[in-house]
Amino acid sequence: MLVESCTTPEAQAIPQERRSIGRGSGVSIPRSTARSAFSSGGSERRRNGDGVTFREWFVCRGRISRRTWWLRYALPILGLSVLAALADASLGYPLVTIAPDSGAVDYLSGPMSGLVSLLTLVPSISSTVARLHDRGHSAWWLLWFLLPLVGVIVLLVQNAFLRGDGGPNRYGPAPGAPAPLSFAG
């Protein structure tokens, strides 16, 4: 629970042991709520800059910006997929096969690509939903994936190229906006 720095009786009743959210922000939270979900005992897990914990990367909630979607989800998952495809190719699994009679192209995956696909399935779905939430759309928009090619293009344009809602929407405040303040009582 966030507490605004002020001199109201409610704010004065809060213990002085706090951890500041940002430099000069004037907003602080009690030390007990500042600990990460993965903290053990009394030690606090520190994050540097825009770093995220594994849990935050694996299950994204609320809204995320285009920049966050590209830098924390799309590009890392794409990079892992390329590395897995190269690992499969080095193990002797063909990446592409072409049927001699029809000329159809089949994209195959080996065990490494399959493993990376399974491991990144939840982060890719959760980040896509969070990005759709930033645009004001529900998770039902994932059904666009059922339309071959058209659905992928629609969701790629929605997630990668269109700006999110500027202010708060039904899914929460805009990414990067300060969280609403409440007084502890």
Question: Features of this protein?
Answer:
185 residues, three-stranded antiparallel beta sheet, 39% helix, disordered N terminus, mainly alpha, 2 domains, single chain, two-stranded antiparallel ribbon, 5 strands
Strands side by side in the biggest sheet: 1-3-2
Count, helices: 7
Class derived from helix and strand content: mainly alpha
Shape: elongated
Measured between the Cα atoms of the first and last residue, the distance is 10 Å
How many extended strands? 5
Q: Please indicate the percent range of residues in DSSP E strands (runs of 2 or more).
A: 5-15%
* Overall pLDDT: 75
Question: How do the SSEs run, as a string of H and E?
Answer: EHEEHHHEEHHH
Biggest sheet descriptor = 3 strands, antiparallel
Helix content: 25-40%
Rg measurement, Å: 22 Å
Which regions are unreliable across 5 or more consecutive residues at pLDDT < 50? Answer: 1-49
How many domains would you count in the coordinates?
A: 2
Quick summary of this structure?
The chain is mostly helical. The protein has seven helices and five strands, in the order E-H-E-E-H-H-H-E-E-H-H-H. Helix content is 39%, strand content 8%.
